[in-house]
Amino acid sequence: MSQDHQTLGEFIIEKQNEFKYSTGELSKLINAIRLAGKIVNHEVNKAGLIDIIGGSGTINVQGEKQQKLDILAHEIFVHTLSNREIVCGIASEEEDHFLPINSLDNKNQNKYIVLIDPLDGSSNIDVNVSVGTIFSIYRRISPIGKPVTMDDFLQPGNKQVAAGYIIYGTSTMMVYTTGHGVNGFTLNPAIGTYYLSHPNMEFPPDGNIYSINEGNYTHFPNGVKKYIKYCQMEEGNRPYTSRYIGSLVTDFHRNMIKGGIYIYPKHNQLGTGKLRLLYECNPLAFLAEQAGGIASNGFNRILDIQPTELHQRTPFFCGSKNMVAKAEEFMGAYK
Ligand code: AHG
Ligand code: MN
Ligand code: MN
């Protein structure tokens, strides 16, 4: 990649100047995420060496106890975000409750809250397959000066101020939106700088990839079963090709670049989907819409769901707009 490319740092400053009255806090927050992502990236890259330097639950050569990587990623993000005077609360997939963050002066002046899935696809770590971090940012709705409340975290996704992910893949990338399109930055690990490599990312309106864990087929709703058969039928640009990595971030990223649909439907035994609305679906739904795609629960827009609990799960249909619209058609027809 040419070093003439704009860096993420330059991009953040340029965008901040476009908002006349911006205080720069959101820019600082994105900067903190950029930094935490680099630290997690470093840890993820070392994962294959764990057996050599000491496995989980054992003492490594530095005398430190090895932690599971998703807990470590959680701690790195919480630590990096709380150390700056921007965030008043964090909710993470790895914690039952949200964490209120006090400002140093204890006056609770910080106005942003962050929700994260610190390590998504973590079962793929052991087999050297791409994983990621997903984040979602809101403005608090409780009054400044008071501690954050549950209502600050239970806002519908359409209130997100920014969202994105970091993908630890063959390259490490940070992809995010502040509601003005989606941009992707690739990390040059040699110098620790992200460069704008994917400006204005967009889902192709059509595609030929479907991503779903078909092992659960018997538990799928009828609409999904019929839609899968439609994907496999010989007609037009079908049969589609099937690609499922099992790291949501990675499946999403590929589909956004190549065109495709990701489905994690309701599982009859769970009575709902597996994916978490606040940590996984809302941020990816915001990105999808900003990139010209659609995200739905099979019937309704993900971003309009009013959450009722932090770890709520939902069915998730996300990707190229004509493909998701077709899947919704099947859901409606075979209720
Ligand atoms: P996490 O690692 O954060 O728990 O998320 C795993 C998620 C998601 O990344 C992936 O798409 C999905 O679970 C895979 O589920 P199945 O193994 O049931 O297909
Ligand atoms: Mn996840
Ligand atoms: Mn996770």
Q: Helix and strand layout, with pairings?
A:
Blueprint: H1 8-18, H2 25-45, H3 50-53, H4 69-82, E1 87-92, E2 99-100, E3 112-120, E4 131-139, H5 150-153, E5 162-168, E6 172-177, E7 182-188, E8 193-198, E9 209-211, H6 222-232, E10 241-242, H7 248-258, E11 261-264, H8 277-290, E12 294-296, E13 316-319, H9 321-333
Parallel strand pairs: 1-3, 9-10, 9-11
Antiparallel strand pairs: 1-2, 3-4, 4-5, 5-6, 6-7, 7-8, 11-13, 12-13
This protein binds 2,5-anhydro-1,6-di-O-phosphono-D-glucitol and manganese (II) ion (2 copies).
One manganese (II) ion is lined by residues 70, 93, 117, 119-120, 122.
Chain-averaged pLDDT:
92
Shape: globular
CATH homologous superfamily assignment of the largest domain: Fructose-1,6-Bisphosphatase, subunit A, domain 1
Low-confidence stretches: none
The set of bound ligands, ions and cofactors reads: 2,5-anhydro-1,6-di-O-phosphono-D-glucitol, manganese (II) ion
Coarse structural class:
alpha+beta
* CA(first)-CA(last) distance: 49 Å
Radius of gyration: 20 Å
Given the structure, what is the number of helices? 9
What is the fold named in CATH at topology level of the largest domain?
Fructose-1,6-Bisphosphatase, Chain A, domain 1
Number-wise, the strands total: 13
Largest sheet: 8 strands, mixed
- The helix-strand sequence is HHHHEEEEHEEEEEHEHEHEEH
The figure for the number of domains is 2
CATH class of the largest domain: Alpha Beta
Share in β-strands: 15-25%
What percentage of residues falls in helices of 4 or more residues?
25-40%
Biggest sheet: strand arrangement: 2-1-3-4-5-6-7-8
What is the second-level CATH architecture of the largest domain? 2-Layer Sandwich
